[in-house]
Design a protein that fits this description.
Blueprint lengths: L11 E5 L28 H13 L4 E5 L9 H8 L5 E6 L8 H6 L4 E5 L5 H8 L4 H13 L3 E8 L8 H7 L6 E6 L16 H9 L4 E3 L9 E5 L5 E5 L12 E4 L4 E3 L8 E2 H6 L5 H9 L26 H4 L2
Helix pairs in contact: 1-2
């Protein structure tokens, strides 16, 4: 088992396949001259499989593929099929623009649930936020996944003055559709222009929803990042990932590998372990994995607290969101 000094067992690995993406969401990708990682710096398909096997041997039971946008990798099909042979729960997070090209591959790999990032239901707002005219394609692909019997979770980063007025519209979507909406509090990363005034907190979201709907809380499963709810008589559900106002670090079980093979023990960790270089040098990566988790902070990478007004964005030490992986 992979256990930290707070006795948290880590059995969930998130692997970023690339820092490239076909969308340009400002909260994820900085606008000013962002340079994508050279292909030679990225973990290759066989390396991803071999490294993942070590994590599985150490107790990992779930792997999520992320990006950037994982489906822009030319060898995405090879990677997901390699990982599907491991005895794990396999899933992915995607922006949904290319899902129609990979339906059969995803089903063959045994994926039963997919997270799709969609911050707005409005076509014009989608173009404004992503700088790409792909809203209709994403909506079609969400329905395509539902028709294929795959559970769909929609990730919505809520930002005040940008898309917070759509919270009710997203909850309305769950009325007749078995979809799960996950509202995400806006989090600070390098270059994403975070400001506490843009954060819509868990309580503010719930207050908003309850102006129109009666809701009931749903039971939380261990290690979940979400606080789940259901509007009465709706087929689907919604949840809030309250990283900023009510974090869920107490039973965190997550580890991350960036596309260039750096291990992060927290989304906000200041330090990384170069697992890929260790692997390419022919060394055993196992002790480096355990050392990395042994250095994990109790909450939020040790960088800030839930007092949003005291967060100094320029003092935070981290990567851009797109180079970490969702």
């Amino acid at each position: 088992m992979i256990v930290d000094k707070f006795n948290r067992v880590h059995d969930y690995l998130r692997i970023s396949l690339t820092d490239n993406c076909d969308l340009r969401c400002f909260y994820c990708m900085p606008e000013e001259g962002y340079q994508f990682m050279p292909a030679s710096n990225l973990m290759q398909a066989a390396e991803i499989e071999s490294i993942a096997k070590v994590f599985v041997q150490e107790g990992v039971r779930k792997i999520r593929l992320t990006g950037g946008e994982p489906l822009v990798r030319k060898d995405f099909s090879e990677i997901i099929l390699r990982l599907s042979k491991l005895n794990i729960q396999l899933t992915l997070t995607t922006n949904g623009t290319r899902l129609h090209e990979f339906v059969e591959i995803i089903k063959t790999a045994g994926v039963r649930s997919i997270n799709i990032s969609l911050d707005t239901l409005k076509k014009d707002c989608f173009l404004l936020m992503t700088k790409r005219d792909k809203h209709e394609q994403v909506m079609q692909n969400i329905q395509l996944m539902l028709d294929a019997g795959i559970e769909v979770k929609i990730n919505v980063v809520v930002m005040k003055g940008i898309n917070d007025e759509e919270i009710i519209d997203f909850v309305e979507w769950t009325k007749n559709t078995s979809i799960h909406i996950r509202f995400i509090e806006f989090m600070p990363f390098d270059g994403n222009r975070w400001n506490s005034n843009k954060v819509v907190t868990l309580q503010e979201m719930l207050d908003n929803v309850q102006e129109k709907y009666a809701i009931e809380p749903l039971e939380r499963i261990a290690h979940e990042t979400t606080k789940k709810y259901k509007a009465l008589h709706h087929r689907g559900t919604f949840a809030v990932i309250s990283t900023m106002s009510a974090p869920f670090c107490g039973d965190c079980n997550r580890m991350r590998l960036t596309a260039d093979g750096k291990m992060k023990n927290c989304l906000f960790s200041q330090t990384e372990t170069d697992i890929l270089s260790v692997y390419r040098n022919g060394e055993d990566i196992t002790p480096f994995i355990h050392q990395n988790i042994g250095e994990k902070k109790q909450a939020l990478g040790g960088q800030f607290t839930t007092d949003l007004n005291k967060i100094e964005i320029n003092d935070l030490q981290n990567r851009t969101m797109i180079s970490i992986g969702g």
